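User: Run a structure prediction on this.
Assistant: Running it now.
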Amino acid sequence: MTDRCVLVDTDTGVDDALALLTVAHHPGTEIVGVGTAFGNCTERQAARNALTVLSVAGLHDVPVCIGQPRPGPPPATSSPHGLDGLGDRGYRPPPGVYPAPESAVDQLLRVAEDRPGAVDLLCLGPLANIAAAVTRDPRLLTRYRSVTVMGGMGTASRRGVEAAVQPQFLGKGDTNTNHDPGAATVVAAVPGQITWVGMNVTGRLRLAWADLVARSAVGKTATFVRDITEDYHRYCTSTYRAENPIYTAHDSVAAAVMLDPAVVLAADDAQPRVRHEDGRAAVWGVIPVRGPAHRFVTDLDYGSIGARIAATLDADIPRSGAR
């Protein structure tokens, strides 16, 4: 029985892959489509990556649609996700599996029209596709049951608090917004049940690399995730100056919020604004609100989210008595 239908918009890097698997393995959830954006790699490579990840989850009929191209030159620095977005481990989609002919923007519009109020939209990358779609239909996001964005930095009033708790917080930045601040500006101005799950909360969940290695000894999902995360975890360990090796799962945190809103322990209604500081762009929630109010998450049940990720990694492990 399907209890939840999800449309995912993603730039399919390492943590996007884990988020896709997290959604795919959630009981009663159907991924009705995937749209791809540039960011961790090109939008076309992101489509190939999404098809690869879906095949790991045993999903072979989900339409994957290619989205908008990057509105400018590629980043000058290399991505910690590798040149191909999945750690440069040589993964490819299964033979004969290709992206759908429909564009990601058309898919966003069609799903909302065909199934108004019945589909949750999960945005894991730069918001180029979402912005292009709402430019054609300004009330588009009100036709989704919910919209969850992995982006932003939280509410501006908590900037100092977050920076003190996470010394790398401001330097790490709002990567998805920085890839396309114009698109984020468009989305920030539209109405809808929109929740921003920003770096203020996603960066707090740091998963032990040793645990992933141990789980990969007995499960193919964990083996795949460990393989693509091999280099990314070194980047995470260095960036967060962790004493022991870690990896982060920013997009899986956003996926967990969409799948189970009860994991949100605190949130503020605020007006999203794109601010440019120190050569980077970021979305901050501003109070008081003068325009469409969106929700900005400020605290989460990390124990529950960590358990959900662990269950995803173990989802393919044969249970006692299974045949």
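Residues 319-323 have pLDDT under 50 and may be disordered.
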